[in-house]
Amino acid sequence: MGLSLGIDFGTSGARAIAIDSSKNIVAEVHYPFTNANFQDWQKALFYLLDNLGDSVRSELKSIAINGTSSTVLLCDNWGNPLSEAILYNDGRGIAFLDAIKAIAPPHHPVISATSSLAKLLWWSEQEIFSQARYFLSQADWLAFLLHGKLGISDYHNALKLGYDLENLCYPDWLENLPMFNLLPQIFAPGTAIDTIKPDLVTRFAIPKDCLIYTGTTDSIAAFLASGANSLGDAVTSLGSTLVLKLLSSQKVDDSNYGIYSHRLGNLWLTGGASNTGGAVLKKFFSHEELRNYSLAIDGQKESNLDYYPLLKAGERFPINDPFLPAKLTPRPDNPLEFLHGLLESIARIEALGYQRLQELGANKLERVYSAGGGAKNSTWRIIRQRHLGVPVLLSQQDQAAYGTALLAQQSVTLLK
Ligand code: ADP
C-alpha cells in the first residue's frame, strides 16, 4: 500500500515519522539542533532520509514537511538563500509595524513584529533585496529541495504573510506592494505538487513516483496528530508556554490578544498563546520533583493559592497587559502545596483562555486534548478538568511529524 512520511522542523530539532496505511508508525528518526539555519536544515533533511532505513525508503509514496511558522527565507532564481533565514521569533520587523497597520485590516495576524510580512518589509530595505526572486517559508524551501519547484506555499504557512484565508486569494492591499512578485502561489495544505526529484531517487532509492505534498506549520501538525477532529475539540499544549487551539465554525481574530485563526478545510482553528506554562514549573522544580510531587497531590481538591506564574512581567493572552507582573506569592514552605498552587493557577488561566476564545465567537468547548511536556501529568489533568468542565484527554500522538505524515497520506478528514 505504500508508506507516508511526515517531516517536522521544530525549534529544537527535526523529526521524520513514516506511517503505514493503518496509520501505524513504522519508522521514526530524530535530528536535534539548536539555533539552526538553512544549512543545518538541509543537512537535517538528508540525515533523516538517510537514516529511515532501506526498506522504509523503498516503500515511500508520499512526503510532506512542516516548518516553524514565520521562519522565512529570501532566495534567488535558483532557490539559493540570499542570506540567513529570519527565524520565527526574530522581532527585527518592529520598525515596519506602523507601515503594516496602515495597509492591513484591523486585528490582522500580520500586525506583529515577528510576522512573515514584517520580515519581508525589513528585507526590502537591505542591499541584497535587488537579487531576490522568491520569498519562502521554511517548509516551502525544504519541500523545494525535494520536488524542485519554487514559489509554492500552503495557506497555513501563508497566514502571517497576509493571505486571505476566507477568499483563498491574496488581498489587494498585499497585491499593491512593490515586492508582491516575490510571494509564493498558495495551495491547500496537503496538495500534491510533484514527484520527488530524480537525483534524490538515485541517492536515496526512493520510488520515482513518490509525491511531495504542500506542508503546514509545526503547531497545526501537532493539532492534526492529537486526534481532535470535530467542532468544539481543542488541544492545549503544555510546553514551556501554554498554547490553546479550539476548532470552530467561526473565524476569530484579535491582534490585541494575539488571537488568530487558521483555516482547516471549512472550519477554523482559533487559538492563543499565554506566557505562563512549564518554563515556570521548571524554574522551581526538577523533572523528578514535578512527577513525584504531582503524584502526591490530590487533584480533586482545589488549592486556594492564586498565582499568575510568569518568568518575567508581561502577558498577551488571555489577559492583554504588557506589564502584567508575575504573581508567585504567598509561597508556602511545603513544596507540594506550592506546586499544587502553580498547577491550579495555570489551569485557571487555561480555562480563562478558552472562555476568551468563546466570548470572541469560537464554538463551545466540548473536549480538550493535551500535548507537550505537562500533558502526561495525570494530577494536572484532574485539576484542569475541574476548571474546564469538559473531558480532558491525552493526545493520541503528540509528535508534529505524525500529523504531517497524516497530511502526506491524505487522511486528514477536516481538509477534505
Ligand atoms: P517546549 O515547549 O519547550 O517544546 P515541551 O513540550 O518539551 O516544551 O515541555 C517541556 C515542559 O514540560 C517543561 O517546561 C516542563 O516544566 C514541563 N513538564 C515536564 N514534566 C512535567 C510534569 N510531570 N508536570 C508538569 N509539567 C511538566
Automatic annotation (TrEMBL):
Keywords: Kinase, Transferase. GO terms for molecular function: kinase activity. InterPro entries: ATPase_NBD (IPR043129), FGGY_C (IPR018485), FGGY_N (IPR018484). Residues 236-408 form the Carbohydrate kinase FGGY C-terminal domain. Residues 4-224 form the Carbohydrate kinase FGGY N-terminal domain. Pfam families: FGGY_C (PF02782), FGGY_N (PF00370). Belongs to the FGGY kinase family. This is FGGY-family carbohydrate kinase. It comes from Microcystis viridis FACHB-1342. The lineage of its organism: Bacteria, Bacillati, Cyanobacteriota, Cyanophyceae, Oscillatoriophycideae.
